[in-house]
Write a structure and sequence with these properties.
alpha+beta; OB fold (Dihydrolipoamide Acetyltransferase, E2P); BirA Bifunctional Protein, domain 2; 8-stranded mixed β-sheet; 16 strands
């Protein structure tokens, strides 16, 4: 008999179905047993007599196959239950290291990550990663409609995109290679190759010795690059429309998911407010007494300036523009003697996007490299496209795990990674 998913049993009222899943709970009341069965689409109560369970050693999370009749029952979750005819034990589960069937998963984050295959079974985690998948789909859908081409760039590279720092090295046959920090060089090359608009959803690797609730050493980056822009504000306007589209798609197509995670999606206005770095530093100094800041924002400063934006403009998003040029990679377009045509997007106190306009002139880019103490001859493959007609261009990168965690109200970005890689974790 063909398998039926629990979400579809309403279509089979008074008919016999075959279900597969995990035993979430089993209660025995004399001659009647109530088995709560779970599959990837939901849960259903199965009513069984003792004969159906004879000689079966059912434990919580054992995998079973149930055959039975679908019966309408208003008191049951979903309005239906299964009057079971038979149960086949497919695999027995050993005693669990945590209670994954409680309404809330109370195990510590380390325990959850050490037993990831189990903690991912909890409904709240299942829904979190369905949200993450929906975010990626919304990102792709918007950019596909805007003429962007999805690309897949190498993750094994010969050097760094930002001067060779914070790289994971490895042996690549007879030479040394690195894990890619970013698809930046490839995005720019593809823009200059005539594709004009490209995007990628892929892993990036940062050998940063952080051990905080907001950093991962391997994460998913939502990258895009586009040609023929006027300045960084074109990229900021694009991201504004992108976020509007993603959130609208979530509201229309994933209302049940948002409700189950208790997510109140933020409102993205017609234009996200913005201020320069100098303006932000002035506000932080005058409003919050942060006179210690010079040319960048620390995590507390990001939280404070977002609080200011919420009070001032009722916006949970804020663009910070004109970062000091020395704080940005060598390919960043200058804007004046010391500032850059770049931005960060802050959301609920955390930076989720870095982007801006790139240098498109070959000579200017070579000079920028030399000013950073970099040898242009080491970047020959990257520089080639700039010699043959590179259009004005820019782009951005969004950290998927950070965005997911912030939307879902998770306090640690590791919760929004299926199998996180951080300063101290390389397993499972």
């Amino acid at each position: 008999m063909q398998r039926t998913y629990i979400s579809d049993i309403h279509r089979w009222q008074d008919r016999t179905v075959n279900l597969n899943g995990w035993v979430q709970r089993l209660r025995s009341l004399g001659q009647v047993n109530f088995l709560l069965l779970r599959d990837r689409t939901g849960t259903v109560q199965v009513v069984l007599n003792n004969e159906a369970l004879a000689d079966l050693e059912l434990t919580t999370e054992s995998v079973v196959e149930v055959t039975g009749r679908v019966v309408k029952e208003s008191r049951a979750h979903g309005g239906y239950e299964i009057w079971g005819d038979s149960v086949q034990l497919l695999n027995t589960a050993e005693p669990l290291p945590m209670n994954i069937n409680a309404p809330q998963l109370k195990a510590t984050l380390d325990t959850q990550l050490n037993h990831r295959s189990l903690s991912l079974r909890h409904p709240s985690n299942q829904q979190l990663f369905r949200l993450q998948s929906a975010l990626v789909h919304g990102f792709q859908e918007f950019l596909n409609a805007g003429g962007f081409l999805q690309v897949f760039t190498p993750k094994l590279v010969a050097g760094g995109t930002e001067g060779g720092t914070e790289l994971f090295s490895l042996q690549y046959f007879e030479q040394k290679a690195y894990l890619a920090q970013s698809p930046q060089f490839y995005k720019q090359t593809l823009v200059g190759s005539g594709f004009e608009r490209v995007y990628e959803v892929g892993h990036v690797y940062r050998a940063e010795r952080h051990a905080t609730a907001r950093h991962l050493n391997e994460y998913v980056s939502l990258d895009l690059e586009m040609a023929f822009i006027q300045d960084e504000f074109d990229i900021m306007a694009l991201e504004t429309r992108l976020l509007q589209s993603i959130f609208e798609s979530l509201r229309v197509c994933h209302g049940d998911l948002l409700e189950s995670l208790r997510i109140d999606l933020p409102v993205v206005g017609a234009a996200i407010p913005h201020m320069t770095m100098d303006e932000a530093l002035t506000v932080l100094r005058e409003e919050f007494g942060r006179s210690d800041l010079r040319d960048d924002l620390d995590p507390e400063a990001e939280r404070l300036i977002c609080h200011y934006a919420k009070q001032q403009w009722n916006s949970e998003f804020l663009f910070i523009t004109e970062y000091p040029l020395h704080k940005r990679p060598m390919y960043t377009m200058p804007k004046g003697p010391a500032s850059s045509a770049s931005f960060d997007l802050l959301f609920r106190g955390v930076e989720i996007t870095t982007g801006g306009q790139r240098i498109h002139n070959h000579g200017q880019l070579v000079q920028a490299m030399q000013e950073r103490g970099l040898d242009p001859t080491l970047f020959g493959d990257y520089l080639e496209v700039f010699r043959y007609g590179m259009p004005p261009h820019g782009g951005l990168a969004i950290g998927l795990e950070r965005l997911t965690a912030l939307l879902a109200g998770r306090s640690n970005v590791r919760e929004a990674s299926l199998f996180p890689r951080d300063r101290h974790r390389l397993t499972p």
